[in-house]
Amino acid sequence: MKIVVGLKQVPETTNVKINEKTKNIDRRGVSGVINKYDRNALQTALDIRDVVGGTVIAMSMGPNDFAVSLQEALSLGADEAVLLSDRAFGGADTLATGYVLAEAIKKIGGVDLVIMGQQSVDADTGQMGPIVAEMLGISQVTYADEIQPKSDNELRIKRYDDNIEQEIIAKTPLMLTTTGNAGKPEYVNVVEIKNSFEKPLTTWTSKDMPVDSNRLGQSGSPTVVRRIMSPEPKERAGKMLSTDATKAAEELAGILHEENLLAEED
Amino acid sequence: MTDIRENWIFAEKSINKINSATFQLITKMKSISEIPVTVVLLESQADSFENEIKQYGPDKILTVKDDELDKADDVSVASALSGLIDKFGTPISFIFAATTFGRSVAPRLQAKLLTGLTADCLDLSFEDDLLVQTKPSYGDNIMCEIVIPDFKPQMATVRPNIFKAEKVFDDTTKIVEINDLNWDKDANIQITTHVLPAKTDENLATADRIVALGRGGKQDLNNANELANKINATVGVTRPLTDMDEFDQSQQIGQSGETVAPDLLINLGVSGSVQFTAGIENANTIVSVNTDKHAPIFKQSDYCFNGSSEDFLKALNKVL
């Protein structure tokens, strides 16, 4: 199977604040790591390859420093890596990003399976898998928990559609998105790190793919972020009950009865 | 394609019922816009979920009766929804619940229609026909205000249980039944099992009363269970407790767990991280017990007890 894994480099911590001067997100001193769900996606791809054979290609779109994460993917066992990097891609929303990823996957050609994490931990959109799947015209199974190859072109998948348990048999070509339960990530070993530098890591720009420039970056993005804010939790009265547990319990029991909070509804 | 002055809401079904998030979206969309609200319902010939939906007062329900679409996969449903837009025109907005299903179908449809979509919104409002969408990112540490000025439909998925659903008592909903919709079936996906697991925890998202345990309350599980039994409450936990054998992820309240909206929430030894409090804002009455009098949870609570949760639970179990 030819498998492409979509990886996003995200800040190591999501505990970021807004810079009061610039009104932008302050990422100073925060280093980049592979999005945690994408690690599950990568491991799922490696596990499938190890059973049915084939190639795993790690792919990411972003600035040149995203190559670090692709290098890490190679050291974790991916066979090849492709970085999609071009100023023209900058400022892209989900639709414009999905377009570039889909065009790059078309360029690779003959891809049986695309796997991505269920969502990134920074933007939290979860849209990339379905968007790319639609643009490639392939089927999708999102939020996959357990994935097993059933044959050379079929996977058996367990997932939860909220609280509904589903088992699915899916034929390739297919897009899968993985939860944190799929493909338990393994640690890198030193030999693999050394070998990873022998593996191909290529960068493609907009000139390497037959892309429509109107669909790239900001101009290809229907959504506009008007404003970013810090969340303001609504504060409540915070009335202190007695410091004596027995008295406090009596006070609360009175309040619960008075406010009718223990009554059964229909 | 023609534009139509309607806001569309996708009616999401669980097994044999409409997801309550759909009703919440109808009430919310009616309250923020004068534009007529249309609910899109896909159901089998034998079902009549439109009768339940119309109690919430949408202007119109487009009911597609098709046994094959009843429990269909994402790709087939996205194709059917795109077919409806071809047939009736492009609405101003198209809103989905941010459930697993909504978050999988909506972006698929977005890519078909080449429009914008904002995922997992916590609030919606209108400026004329412009839908203003508020969405968290960075694990709820940042809020973004997003608009889609030049494309239609303006699409969003909205987190369940953020808004309250209200029934209305007029009977003016127009029901349009569609029996001849063309859509492409996805032959590559075969759903072989579609069941509610035998072990169903009481559902936190719909519970009227919840007793929540945090790190400071985990040793009081027995007393907490006794209280939960007495007041018929569901037990929930903070994220760190899901690592313990006694609890699982379905019991987690907060940003990466369930958003809850009970009448009464009693927090035991919960410190009150943003990740947790993001999930409890819509609780009616919040009571918190904590040994730390500066615990952030007290600012998010209506009633507070500063002391041991063990003492408090024992005393409360005695008087209730």
Automatic annotation (TrEMBL), chain A:
CDD domains: ETF_beta
InterPro entries the record matches: ETF_a/b_N, ETF_b, ETF_beta_N, Rossmann-like_a/b/a_fold
Annotated coiled-coil segments of the chain: none
Top-level division of the source organism's lineage: Bacteria
Domain Electron transfer flavoprotein alpha/beta-subunit N-terminal: 22-213
Protein name in the entry: Electron transfer flavoprotein small subunit
Species per Swiss-Prot/TrEMBL record: Companilactobacillus mishanensis
From TrEMBL, chain B:
Pfam families the record matches: ETF, ETF_alpha
Annotated Gene3D superfamilies: HUPs (3.40.50.620), TPP-binding domain (3.40.50.1220)
CDD domains attached to this UniProt entry: ETF_alpha (cd01715)
Superkingdom of origin organism: Bacteria
InterPro entries per UniProt: DHS-like_NAD/FAD-binding_dom, ETF_a/b_N, ETF_a/FixB, ETF_alpha_N, ETF_asu_C, Rossmann-like_a/b/a_fold
Segments forming domain Electron transfer flavoprotein alpha/beta-subunit N-terminal: 7-185
Protein family according to the UniProt entry: Belongs to the ETF alpha-subunit/FixB family.
Protein name listed in UniProt: Electron transfer flavoprotein subunit alpha/FixB family protein
